[in-house]
Amino acid sequence: MGLSIRETVRDWPGMLQIEDLTFNAWGRRFFDRASVTVPPGTKVGLVGRNGVGKSTLFKIILGEFQPDSGLVSLPKTARIASVDQEHPATPVSLIDTILAADIEREALNQELETAEPERMGEIYGRLIEIDADRAPARAGEILAGLGFSVADLTRPMAEFSGGWRMRVALAAALFAEPDMLLLDEPTNYLDLEGALWLEARLKRYPHSALIISHDRELLNNSVDAILHVSGEKLELYTGGYDDFEKRRAEKARLQLSAKAKQDAERAHLQSFIDRFKAKASKAAQAQSRVKRLAKLEPIAATIEEHVAPFHLPSPKRPLAPPLMHLTDATIGYGDDAPVLRDLNLTLDVDDRIGLLGVNGAGKSTFAKMVAGALKVRDGRMVREGRVQVGWFHQHQIEALDPADTPLAIIRRERPDDSESSRRAKLASFGLPFDKQETTVDSLSGGERARLLLNLVAMQAPHLLILDEPTNHLDIDSRRALLDALNDYGGAVILITHDRSLMELVADRLWLAADNTVKPFTGDMDDYARFVLDRSRQGKIAPGQGRERKGKRRAA
Ligand SMILES: Nc1ncnc2c1ncn2[C@@H]1O[C@H](COP(=O)(O)OP(=O)(O)OP(=O)(O)O)[C@@H](O)[C@H]1O
Ligand SMILES: [Mg+2]
After folding, report:
1. Which of 55, 58, 440, 475 to mutate to test the pocket of ligand 1 (most atoms within 8 A of CB)?
2. Domain of 540: which CATH number?
3. Nearest residue (CA) to ligand 1, atom 7
4. Does the global pTM surpass 0.85?
5. Which long-range contacts (C-beta less than 8 Å, at least 24 apart) are formed by 105-108?
6. Domain total for the chain?
7. Ligand 1, closest atom to CA 449?
8. Which of 240, 271, 303 delimits the end of a domain?
9. Tens digits of residue pLDDT in 155-188
């Protein structure tokens, strides 16, 4: 379920305490006597490698999984709301989904109608406490912030694409304003504008929050502490992500020098033992050295395992420029008004284009056309006939069959390969043997994204269109993707709300806005300012482009 709310009594001290948590599942240990205490009212960023067990920890906290031993104490009195990485396509309308989130307020209002006079006081008191009067205003502000229009309110959830359903779940959780808010990668389905809004909103969230994120900006701007999952342990660091990285690097350095010292001592003891164990006169000393050696606790050399690189093979035979040339081109769906027009653009064989624009501005439609999946309606498009395009986008993740497995998928992709070379390929993608027959619905978000990204690039395309490729990837994997992109020889069109990735990859920026795509002069800071200015002026109508995101068009 995308959104889950647990109700509630009051007076929660606001503390999350995990003591000696041990958890094993799917043939593997996730936590080994892990402990942490999160002080009341703290906003915590939960970080760690893809597949390390962050989403699993949420499920343990929510009581969906039982620990093998240890305690997770989250007093039964707390109101908790959680938003997962996915939200189902229910027939329930948007507004009902939101209202259902504030269970307590609903229940109190209902109780008021029949309550005994002596209970009334309590109910009113509680309604004031939870600021019930301001609820409609708060809902409105949240919905606008996340880009919803009034017309959206009555539409059933099933009509929204996965990304928009997640926004509803997020809006509902923020609206309910629980004592403890659990969010699993909330910026994944937001555009830059939505991400900026959420950063600000979380920063002033009045209660505790635990936010799984791989988003450096959010982790630097919105949380008070970082909770790191690594080596089957939990460790809390105060401050944002940059502070955390510095402190962890320092810790790794200290650990390394302690290890070097210990290795020297070990070698010294060993050589003493080797030299003297045959001599009767020194046998006792040698014995005591043997004991000392046995007592030395080994110090781990590295804190982090290495992250699998991405493979983006360069095109075998480069094509003659340009890859694509558009003159006064128009694109759209069926007989509807065009989504984009006045397109006058040239794409060269080694271009690195950063494609900007809010959700719904037509970036995906543009990508579809470049990928060859949508024809130009008017005007001219000259496209190199042999161009092979690798196109990665979020719908691919949504469209995966939950019962499929990585091995079955690559079998279909590489029917002529041997089974062992397919398995080797998957392992090189970062999916080791024991993950290759795990069903898609059991893979973590990052594992799925890794699989698809590598599959898309496998044919060494001339052009890679990457639509939000870093969603779900952990921070080190993002760096690995950046390295691979730098080595890739073909052209790249990149869509991302990750400002730093965009800056490091794109050498030209194009902007989708006002029903067209045009070169954008300026850098990412200029763009962030442009976006905020426009939304302040209300030029981006709330709900703009929702139709195009809707299910009916997603096919
Ligand atoms: N039902 C299952 N069967 C087998 N393996 C599973 C199942 N559910 C989860 N796993 C595995 O457990 C591991 C932890 O998953 P989890 O979703 O908690 O990771 P995560 O830290 O949230 O990762 P990400 O950052 O990619 O979201 C993953 O390797 C996943 O494949
Ligand atoms: Mg996860």
Report:
1. 55
2. 3.40.50.300
3. 442
4. no
5. 105/130, 105/132, 105/135, 107/7, 108/132
6. 3
7. 26
8. 240
9. 888 888 777 888 888 898 898 888 889 999 998 8
